[in-house]
């Protein structure tokens, strides 16, 4: 089945990696073919959002079960990428809707003024003969109906979806495809980006002063991966009680342009983690009060400097960024000026060459189905595969691959179910890497596992524009006989 679609919720049992069959790289196997072509219109955005939400919820449940957390252990869903469900519009989408609504309201005001002026002209004899009162009321009512329709249309996503349908092009033509950069780039009313400390706000009146306060080495997570704990100090500057998670902030941490995956650390009574509270994202803070909120992230390596993006500038909030240098032994994080790290290392022309453009309403990427390898059998001894995707974010802000594309894997015409591995993960696979964000221009890698229905039947892997575009990248693999 599709990436972020429904999953087999019962699949959480462990396996012994050492007993797993050897990996097979199908990239050079006979029958491998790469096809890039124009696809039919993208499926309905709302239905896709629904499957995304169901998928992430299922994967979160499995991950929590797999951890075997004791009753004393404390976890927080808001530390993971599941917090922002794709069914909810992003901050930039709400900005665009708000700006469009403002334009529509201005149009209403102009129509209202035109009606008043026309009424005065008719009454005083300027510009034509005087009309009867009944006729004037009928004309005024018609203008109001038209204005109301304009407001309704521009308060929805209809203009973007229509433009996407008109201008969405095939994957072999960049210029003819609809590019989201016209919609999700910085607007003229964006607030400035501040170093370390800035102010954020919401549409319903919440506001806060947020500081990227510090970073510290954390213990390895359940997958045995090194972690960093980032502390966000904030003060509630609004008029009502609120929580850190109520602010739709990006809260991204990057190493060489690739986003770190938020992870859960198990802070127990017997082994507390100093300076870490997984519940702090949902701790209620009264107006005027302050709190330290801590979030753990899985490091890609223990040497590359961190670029932290607490928020992207928009019409309501300031951008907030900072950076940290890591000591040679990977234990100390020193806060530094973020300016050199704001622009990620850019993918080279050679790295971009095998990638194909995928445009959608919300993001643009270059992507390639790089590899398909065999993974360990699941607990029912069903064969599995690992799909590897290399991609470059060509949008103007940090984005996820899934903002631009849906991934589906089919066998014998049927969509396969996504698979979940117990930690430790098999070589070449990273759980939740499909939720990774990337800075503009950076090369990133995502891996996803699927459970095969048939160990020998060919597998077709498809990346398709999420919505608002028609681009499709496919790869068909003829599996060798077992």
UniProtKB/TrEMBL annotation:
Q: Where is this region: Disordered?
A: 1-138, 174-200
Compositionally biased region (Low complexity): 98-118
Does Signal appear among the keywords? yes
Q: Would I find Membrane among this entry's keywords?
A: no
Residue ranges under compositional bias (Basic and acidic residues)? 1-10, 34-51, 187-198
Listed InterPro entries? DUF5067, Immunoprotect_excell_Ig-like
- Keywords, comma-separated and alphabetical: Signal
Q: Where is the composition biased (Polar residues)?
A: 71-87, 120-137
**DUF5067 domain ranges (all copies):** 191-311, 364-463
Q: What's the name of the protein? A: DUF5067 domain-containing protein
- Biological source species: Bifidobacterium leontopitheci
